[in-house]
Amino acid sequence: MQQDEPKVLPLFSIPLYKGKVKIEESVKNIVLNEKYTRMRSGTGHISKNTFILDLPEFKSLKDEVEIHVKNYVYKFLKVSETMNFYIQNSWLVKHFPKDYAISHSHSNCLIIGVLYLKVNKNSGQIIFEKPNGYTNLFHQCMNVPFSALDNNNCDSWCEYPENNDILIFPAHLQHRVEINNSNEDRYSLAFNLNVEGIFS
Predict the structure, then answer these.
(1) Labelling 122: which of 37, 75, 84, 196 has CA 20 to 30 A away?
(2) What predicted TM-score, i.e. pTM, was given to this entire model?
(3) Mind listing the pLDDT tens digit for each residue in 128-187?
(4) 29 touches 2 (CB < 8 A)
(5) CB count in 10 Å sphere of residue 169
C-alpha cells in the first residue's frame, strides 16, 4: 500500500471474537444427558447446574475455553496481563425445535462467551444488535441508505454458528438467537467472565 493511499480506521468498535474449540465426544454425551429446566421466558432450557465448567469431567474443555479467553483479552484487546479474567459462571442451553432466545445482554460481568456443542444450519443464527444510542456512524434519526452492508455501517450482525465454534464479546452487547427451524435440539454452552487485579 502506498503511503498516501486513503484508509479508514474502525474507531471505537465492539470486538467480536470467533474461534474453534476441540471438544471430546465424551463431553458432548454428558451435555445430552444433563438435567435442564425450562427458562422463565418459555423459549428454551437451561441446565440446572450453572457452574458447568467447574465439573471435573469438563476440565479439558474449560482449559480450551480459557486459551481463547486469553487470546481475546490479552492478544486482541491488549489488556494488561496483570489483570486476571476468570469464568464466573457457566451453563448449558438447549433449544427444542421452534425455540429461540429473545434479545438480551448479561449483567454483573464484563465479557461473555458462547460455545456451540450441537447445531446445524437451520437451528438458528445468533444476531448481534447495535446498542440504542450507540452512534458509531449516522444517528438513528436519519435512515441513510447503503449500497452494501458491512460491520462499519450495519445495525445488526449475524453469525451462523457451526459445531465447536466459540464466540466471545462484551457483556453489554445485545444478542438474540433465531428460531430453531431444524428437527433437532440445539445445544450450546454460555459463560460469564469477570476480572480481578489492581485498577489504575
Answers:
(1) 37
(2) 0.91
(3) 998 877 777 887 777 888 888 888 888 889 999 999 999 999 999 999 999 999 999 999
(4) no
(5) 20
